[in-house]
Specification:
The chain has seven helices and 23 strands. The longest helix is centred in the first third of the chain and has 17 residues. Helices cover 19% and strands 40% of the residues. It folds into three domains: 87 residues, no CATH class; 66 residues, 2-Layer Sandwich (GMP Synthetase, Chain A, domain 3), CATH 3.30.300; 195 residues, Thrombin, subunit H, CATH 2.40.10.10. The two termini are 24 Å apart. By secondary structure, it is an alpha+beta fold. Strand 12 and strand 13 form a beta hairpin. The strands form four sheets. The protein has an eight-stranded antiparallel beta sheet with strand order 9-8-12-13-14-11-10-23. It has a six-stranded antiparallel β-barrel with strand order 17-18-19-22-21-20. A three-stranded mixed beta sheet has the order 1-2-3.
Length: 365
Amino acid sequence: MSLRSLFAIAGATVTAVALATPANAALPSVLDATADSGTLAATQETLASRLGSSYGNTWLDQATGKLVVGVTDASRVAEVRAAGATAKVVKHSAAELAGVQSTLDGKAAGAAESVPASVTGWYVDPAANQVVVSVLNDDAAGLAWAKTAASGPVRTERVTDAPRPLWNIIGGQAIYFGGGRCSVGFNARNSAGTRYVITAGHCTELGGAVTGTGGSIGSVSGSSFPTNDYGRITVSSSAAVSTPLVDRYSSGSDVTVAGRTVTPVGGGVCRSGSTTGWKCGTVQAFNQTVNYGGGDIVYGLTRTNACAEPGDSGGSFVSNPGSGTRVQAQGLTSGGSGNCSSGGTTFFQPINEALTAYGLTLVTG
């Protein structure tokens, strides 16, 4: 954990350590990474306040582990040592570096479109006593922007990857195909580590690229409908994080898939979908053949009285968690009759058949 994080955790109410030591007493032991986080935070807070404009940030030295405090005035070194920290005389104060960073922030806030895409961010490097601007592959436009956007102790660093927002793929949440909306069933992977989303086959038969609540997921790579009702989407987006979670929407926090033990007839199950959210019921029968019309007959479905509506297709069917948060994966919402206003019958494709067909294992937690 970085020192900056430690300070954030400790908060502003930590009792300050003594800054003065009687003349006949030994100096306190030198603080380092092994010290209690509260002590480190208190030392930083107190010295920052006491040193004022001479304060030049605090960090843990990567080589020695010692707590280092920068000062712009050499006459203040003794105060730092008296608090148990190691002093380093620096050229730029913490306030000066913060001001440079603030200038860059202002440039971005005022005209974000003027910041080249190759400039991936900027931050204060306390140990180097500089503000660092990260530029993707030393792009010329990015380097030029860093040079002119702010004056003072600024340096650039070359990075080879651009940051990206990360988002979770969660069971029951919406997924979009070119021709419609369905719901995530479960996350799975093969023995080589390739990631997949498993959902209903009558959804994946739409084919093509698939997106989710946070952006691109990948493309359909398998589909079986009718006869069966399962399909898979290969997750190719590095921003999409595969999780063992299923969304309970307004009914509670997400539940975690722990395995795939089948719930018996009469047992409680719940399903999650992007139209009606979290709905529960009981298993009424196994191995039902369902005629959806138009020649679409599906075999081996499980019958339940947990209601569903269009758009819930493909969503997670799991064991009823009761008052807990861990569940067993059961299957993928296929279809049914009725609705969630008047009640109805809903069928799901057992997940075990789909996993066996594709040679996959569930992402569990």
